[in-house]
Amino acid sequence: MSALHRHRTDALPEEPPASAPRAAAPLLRVEGLSREFGGVLAVADLSFTIAAGTVHSIIGPNGAGKTTLFNLITGVYRPSGGRVLFDGRDVTGMAPYRLAALGLSRTFQNLQIFMNMTAVENVMVGRHRHLDTRLLPALLRLPSLVRRDHAAADRAAELMRAVGLERYVGTDAASMPYGALKRLEIARALAAEPKLLLLDEPAAGLNATEKKEIGAVIRRIADTGITVVLVEHDMKMVMGLSDHILALNYGRKLAEGRPEEVARDPDVVAAYLGSHG
Amino acid sequence: MTHRLLGLGLLAVVLALLPLGLPNNFYLDMAILAGLNAIVCVGLNLLVGFAGQVSLGHAGFFGIGAYATAVLVSTHKWPALLALAAGALLSAVIAFAVARPILRLKGHYLAMATLGIGIIISIVLRTETRITGGPDGMIVDPLNVFGFEVYGERVWYWVVAGLLLVTVWLALNLIDSPVGRALRALHGSEVAAETLGVDTARFKAMVFVLSAVFASVAGSLFAHYAGLITPAKADFLKSVELVTMVVFGGMASTFGAVVGAAILTVLPQLLTVFQDYQHMMLGLILMLTMVFMPKGLLPTLAGLVQARTSLGGRR
Amino acid sequence: MAEFLQYLVTGVTIGSIYALAALGFAIVYNASHVINFAQGEFIMIGGMATATLTAAGVPLPLAILAGIAGAMLVGVLIAKFAVERARNASVVTLIIITIGASIFLRGLAEVVWGKEFHRLDSFSGNAPLMLGGAVVTTQSLWVLGVTAALILATGLFFNRTMAGKAMLATSHNRLAAQLVGVNVRHVVLAAFALSAALGAMGGAVVAPITYSYTEMGIMLGLKGFAAAALGGLGNGVGAVAGGLIVGIAESLSAGYISSAYKDAVAFVIIVAVLVFMPGGLFGRAGTERV
After folding, report:
1. For residue range C35-79, what is the model confidence (pLDDT) as tens digits?
2. What is the spatial distance between Cα A257 and Cα A245, in angstroms, rounded to a whole number?
3. A8 Cβ partners below 8 Å, 6+ apart?
4. What's the CATH superfamily of A1-103+194-269?
5. Which chain B residues touch C110 with a CB distance below 8 Å?
6. Are the Cβ atoms of A134 and B179 closer than 8 angstroms?
7. Domain count, chain B
8. Chain B partners within 8 Å of A192 (Cβ)
9. Cβ of B240 under 8 Å from any chain C Cβ?
10. Is residue C33 part of a domain?
C-alpha cells in the first residue's frame, strides 16, 4: 500500500487547474498492464499514473491499444497481467458496475446509447447508483422513490443543459443526430458523479464547430475538478486541453509528458509519420 | 406520469364495460382465459420486451403454479391462497437458481437454455405420475378464499380483471423506476449499463424471477378456474404461445402484451370456423404479422397514428 | 456388454437423425443467423411423404425424392417470403416467424395427410442382424449409411465446390462475400433448401423405425436444435457430434436410468453445457467488442 502514496511529481503538470482539490495524489495507477488477444498483445506491460484534477490524453495511431486500455481500466476486459489501482485501491479485474460505484465513468468510441429510451432517461441511468434500486419500492411506486426519481430527472435535465442538449430532453434517443448523441453520452457519464471520467474519442465524426463546442464542454468538466482521461485523434483538441499526454504504439508506451514535450518526441513524430507513410 | 394513469384508467373502463358486451358464459370464459394469459404476458414482457432477454420456457412456471395449487389444495387440503403463495415461492426459487448462469447467455443460446428448462419442467410434471396424475392431469378444487367460494364465470371474471389491473399497475410502476430504467438500459447496451453502475446480472435475475412469479400466480388461478390441469399447460408449445402473445402485441409495450394475449386467446376460437384449416390459418397469421409488423401490433399502430398526426400538423 | 452395445446401436441410429437436423440448423444459421424452428417439419415432410406415397403405390426411391423436393420447395418459400423479409427483425421476432411457419406446415400436413400414424416398411426386409450380441435392424444400417453419406457429401460440398465455398464465405463475412460477387440472397435460399433436403432424407429413413405422424417433427427438431447448440451454433462438425452425443446419451439413460425421462436427456445435457461452457462444446464464446 505504501507505494500508492508515493508522490510522482514528474507526472504532474506545472500548473494544475486552480479548482483541482488534491492535485498531487495519483487517482489512477496502472502497473505493468497487459492484455493479449489470440497471441497478440494489444496492451503490453504498460505503466503510468494519472494525477487527480488533471486532463490526461492518450494518443497513438489506430490499433495502438487505446480503446483496449480503456476497456481494461473500466473492467470491460480482464487484463492478462498487471494491476490497476484506482484511488488507492487495487481494482484489477473488478466488474465494471463496481468500478462505477467507486467513481469511474466513461463514454464509448462506438456510441453505446440506450436507443430504446428517451434522452433524459439515458442520463437518468447514469444516476443509477445514487437511486433506490430495490424491486418492491419500484413495484409499489413508494412516494420516497418517486421524490428521488423526480430529483434525478431534474438533475439529468440540468446536465443535458450543461452539455448543450436542453432541446432534446424528452426526445427518443433513437431520433437524435449523431453529434447530440456524443454529448448525451458525456452527460450520462457525468450523471454518475465520477471522480475519473474516461472519454473515448468524443470529437470523432464531428464537424469543426461541434469539435470546438465539445472541447469547451470538456474544459468545463475539468474545471469542476473531475479528472479527465481523453483518447482523441484531433491533435488540436488534445494539445489545447491536456495537462499530460501518454503516447502509445502497438500497445506500448512511446512517450509521456507535457504536451509540448510529447509533440517534440522523435518516436512520436516517427510513429505518426510512419502510420501515414 | 399522467400518461401512465391514463392507460390504466382506459384499461379499467374497458374491463368494466366488457361483460356488458359479452352475450353468454362462452365469451366470459374466453375473457377470463385471455385475462390469465395477459397476466403472464405482462410479466413476461418485462423480461422479453423491456430487458430484452428471450424465454421459451415460461409455461414451465405457469405449470409449477398450477400443479402446486392442484397438489397442495386438492391432495393436501391446504388453503388456496397459501398454496398459491407456495407455488409462487417455488417458481421464484427455481427461477432464481437458474437465472444467473443462464442469463449470461445471449440470443439463441439463451432461447435454447430457457426452452430446455421449460421442457424439463414439463417432462417432470408429465412423468411423476404419483404426484401429478401424469399425462391425464389432475382435478383441482374450486378457489376458496377465507370460506368464500369463487364460483361461476361472472365472479371469476371480476377476480381476473381486478388482478390484471393490479398486474398492469405494478408493471407500469416498475418500468418507470430506477429498476425499470436499468432493465431497459441493459437491453439497449449491456456494457454501457454496466459501466454506469448497473449490476446487470442482478437485474436480469430480478426480472426473470418476477416474471416467473407472475406466470406461477396465473397458473394457480387457472388450475382453480379450469378445475383440471394437464402437463400440456406447461409444455413447449404453451411457452411459445406466451412469447408469441408478447411479440404479437408489441414488445416493450405493457398494453401491447394485454392486447396480444387477448387476440391470440380469442383467435384460435374464431378460427375454429375454418375447421381443419385452423392451424394453417394460425401459423399464417403469426408469420404475416411478424413479417410485416416486426415490432408488434400496438407499437406499429402507435407509429402509424403518430406519423398521421405529425403529417397533419405540418399541413 | 451386449446390452451396452444394443443401447449404443439404438443411440447412434436416432443420434444420426438428430445430427442431420442439427446440421440443417447449422447451415441455415451460418447463412442467415436464423434458428429455423421449422427444421423439424422438414423431417416430418420427408417421413410423411415417403410413407403415404409408397402406400399409394409409388416406388420407394421416387417417394423419397418427392418428399425431398417438397421439403426443399417449402424451405425456399420460407426463406424467400418470411425470413428474408424480416432480416432486420429481432431474434425473438425471427423465432416467432419460423415457429409460425412450423405451425402452418403441421396444419397443412394434417389437412393433406390426416392426424393418424403412417407405417412405412423397412427398406430391405425385417430380418435383423446380430452384431456382437446386439440386434441391429437393417433399417438402422440404412439410417447410418444414409446419414454418413449425406454428411460426407455436405462436407465435400462446402469444401470442394465453388457454391459451397461461397456459402462458407458468406457465413464468415457477409459484406466481403457480397463484394467478391457472391449473391447473398441466393446463399440464404440455398441454405434453406439444403437443410430441408437433409431433414427430409432423415425423415424418410427414420420413418420405418418411428412411424410418421404430423407431430413427429416437434421433438426431433427441438433435439436437433439442442444438438446444434451443443456443438456450437454454426459449427457443422460440432452439430454432427452433438447429434450423436444426444442420441447415445438418450439411449443409455433410457436403458440404465429411466425410460420415462428419455426425452429430457437432450435438454439436461444442453442446459448443463450452456451453464458451464457458454459457447457450446466446440464453440468459443466471443468477446463483446465496444
Report:
1. 999 999 999 999 999 999 999 999 999 999 999 999 999 999 999
2. 6
3. A26, A49, A51
4. P-loop containing nucleotide triphosphate hydrolases (3.40.50.300)
5. 276, 279
6. yes
7. 1
8. 196-197
9. yes
10. yes
In single-letter form, the type of residue at position C74 comes to V
Q: Is B126 part of any domain?
A: yes
Phi, psi of B280 (to 5 degrees): -60, -45
With cell 387457472, the residue in question is B222
The answer to whether position B280 is within a domain reads no
B54 part of a folded domain = yes
| Min Cα–Cα distance to chain B from A124, Å | 8
Nearest to B198 among A97, A152, A189 (CB): A97
Residue numbers in C near A109 (CB within 8 A): 290
Nearest CA in chain C to B276: C111
Determine, yes or no, domain membership for C264: yes
Q: Is residue C259 part of a domain?
A: yes
CB of A238 within 8 A of CB of A259? yes
- Judged by CB atoms closer than 8 Å, whether chains meet at A110 and C287 is answered as no
Q: How far is A276 from chain B (nearest CA, A)?
A: 33
Structural domain total, chain C:
1
Contact B181 A101 (CB under 8 A): no
H runs (alpha helix) in chain B: 2-21, 25-45, 59-69, 80-102, 107-127, 129-132, 153-175, 178-188, 190-195, 200-226, 236-249, 254-271, 278-292, 297-314
User: Which residues in C lie closer than 8 A to residue A71 (C-beta atoms)?
Assistant: 290
CB A46 within 8 A of CB A251: yes
Q: Position of cell 382453480?
A: B224
Residue from B167, B170, B177, B208 to probe the interface with A (highest A Cβ count within 10 Å) = B177
Q: Is B131 on the interface with C (CB under 8 A)?
A: no
Domain that holds residue B151: 12-244
What's the start-to-end Cα distance of chain A, in Å? 46
**Residues near B148 by Cβ (< 8 Å), separated by ≥ 6?**
none
- Structural domain contains residue B1: no
Q: Which domain, by its residues, includes C32?
A: 2-276
Task: Provide the residue count of chain B.
Answer: 315
- The count of residues in chain C is 290
Helices (H), C173-235: 174-179, 184-210, 216-230
Q: Does residue C114 come out as left (phi exceeding 0), alpha (psi in the -120 to 50 range) or beta? A: left
In Å, how far is B195's CA from the nearest CA of chain A?
5
Q: What residues in C contact B98, CB-CB < 8 Å?
A: 271
Per-residue pLDDT of chain A (277 residues), as tens digits, is 333 333 333 333 334 444 444 445 699 999 999 999 988 899 999 999 999 999 999 999 888 899 999 999 999 999 999 999 999 999 999 999 999 999 999 999 999 999 999 999 999 999 999 999 999 999 999 999 999 999 999 999 999 999 999 999 999 999 999 999 999 999 999 999 999 999 999 999 999 999 999 999 999 999 999 999 999 999 999 999 999 999 999 999 999 999 999 988 998 888 876 654 3
Burial class, B301, CB count within 10 angstroms (exposed 0-12 / middle 13-18 / buried 19+): middle
Q: What ipTM was reported for this prediction?
A: 0.90
Q: Å from A140 to nearest chain B CA?
A: 6
* Chain A residue with Cα closest to B172: A139
**Cell 427461477, located at residue:** B95
Give residue for cell 406446415: C105
Task: Give chains near B: 3+ CB pairs under 8 A.
Answer: A, C
Letter string b/e over residues A115-152, b meaning 16 or more CB atoms within 10 A of that residue's CB? bbbbbbbbbbbbbbbbbbbeeebbbebbeebeebbeeb
Q: Determine contact, residues A30/A49, Cβ cutoff 8 Å.
A: yes
Domain boundaries, chain A: 1-103+194-269, 113-193
CB atoms within 10 A of CB C61: 12
Decide if C285 is inside a domain.
no
